[in-house]
């Protein structure tokens, strides 16, 4: 199995991966329940807050149907944390040789971030052809993905950064885009104000706009 074979299947099934930054542990389970109820089951919980890891753990333990990954994985110890919690995958905004080697060694589904052709070459050389393009919109969005498809026809993208309700379906219509990520489904304010019903409805509306899962 290559480092990317299982992650490709996960992202093909997911298509939309909300990027969730959870400040209060008490929000973790109702937030995940709302998204799953709305049809979005694959969730990225970022390690940007003190509550992040515990929030991921709580969702893994208490929300049936949720497929939980860690985001903002910056160091090998974050990958180990993901494995210890029982996360299905991890995202990083970038990559280091240490992270790529550890993910390959542990056979943990890991999506490294890339922002340039050289970074993509570096990831591919280690067997990672499923990559996150980050920050996608700021790098040129769909035009950048089209341009990278020329020299890298085997690369598959999970772009995040600056993608919203208005354009996520355009990204997903690209043949080399497996999934998109973003915070538009559950903003920090929505979470802070316990807007679970709105989050569920937004998830349902987003799912209705796309083919899901990808064949
Ligand atoms: C991130 O890592 O911050 C994600 O890419 C989310 O970006 P967004 O808030 O622009 O959707």
Q: Could you please describe the fold and organization of this structure?
A:
It is a single chain. The chain is α/β, with parallel strands linked by helices. The protein has helices at residues 5-14, 28-37, 52-62, 76-85, 97-106, 117-125, 141-149, 168-172, 188-192, 196-208; strands at 16-20, 42-46, 67-71, 89-91, 110-111, 113-114, 130-133, 156-157, 180-182. The longest helix has 13 residues, at 196-208. The protein has 10 helices and 9 strands. Helix 6 (117-125) links the parallel strand 6 (113-114) and strand 7. The chain has a single domain (3-208), classed as TIM Barrel, CATH 3.20.20. The model has no long low-confidence stretch (mean pLDDT 95). The strands form 2 sheets. The chain has a 6-stranded parallel sheet, sandwiched between helices. Helix 2 (28-37) runs parallel beside helix 10 (196-208). The protein binds 3-phosphoglyceric acid. 3-phosphoglyceric acid (3PG) binds next to strand 9.
Helix/strand structural class: alpha/beta
Number of domains: 1
Strand percent estimate: 5-15%
- Helix content range: 40-55%
- Architecture, according to CATH? Alpha-Beta Barrel
CATH topology: TIM Barrel
Gyration radius from CA atoms, angstroms: 16 Å
Strand order of the largest sheet: 5-4-3-2-1-9
Distance between the termini: 20 Å
Q: Total number of helical segments?
A: 10
CATH homologous superfamily (4th level) name: Aldolase class I
State the total count of DSSP E strands. Answer: 9
């Amino acid at each position: 199995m290559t480092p990317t074979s299982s992650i490709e299947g996960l992202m093909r099934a997911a298509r939309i991966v909300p990027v969730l930054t959870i400040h209060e542990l008490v929000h973790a389970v109702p937030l995940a329940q709302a998204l799953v109820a709305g049809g979005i089951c694959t969730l990225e919980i970022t390690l940007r807050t003190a509550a992040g890891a515990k929030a991921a753990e709580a969702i893994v333990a208490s929300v049936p149907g949720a497929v939980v990954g860690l985001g903002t994985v910056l160091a090998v110890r974050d990958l180990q944390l993901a494995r210890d919690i029982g996360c299905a995958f991890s995202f990083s905004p970038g990559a280091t040789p240490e992270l790529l080697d550890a993910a390959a060694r542990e056979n943990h589904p890991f999506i490294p971030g890339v922002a340039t052709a050289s970074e993509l070459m570096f990831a591919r050389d280690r067997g990672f052809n499923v990559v996150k393009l980050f920050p996608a919109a700021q790098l040129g969005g769909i035009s950048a993905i089209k341009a990278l498809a020329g020299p890298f026809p085997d690369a598959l993208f999970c772009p995040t950064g600056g993608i919203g309700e208005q354009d996520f379906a355009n990204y997903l219509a690209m043949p080399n885009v497996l999934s998109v990520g973003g915070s538009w489904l559950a903003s920090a304010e929505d979470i802070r104000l316990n807007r679970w019903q709105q989050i569920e409805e937004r998830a349902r509306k987003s799912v209705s706009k796309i083919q899901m899962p990808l064949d």
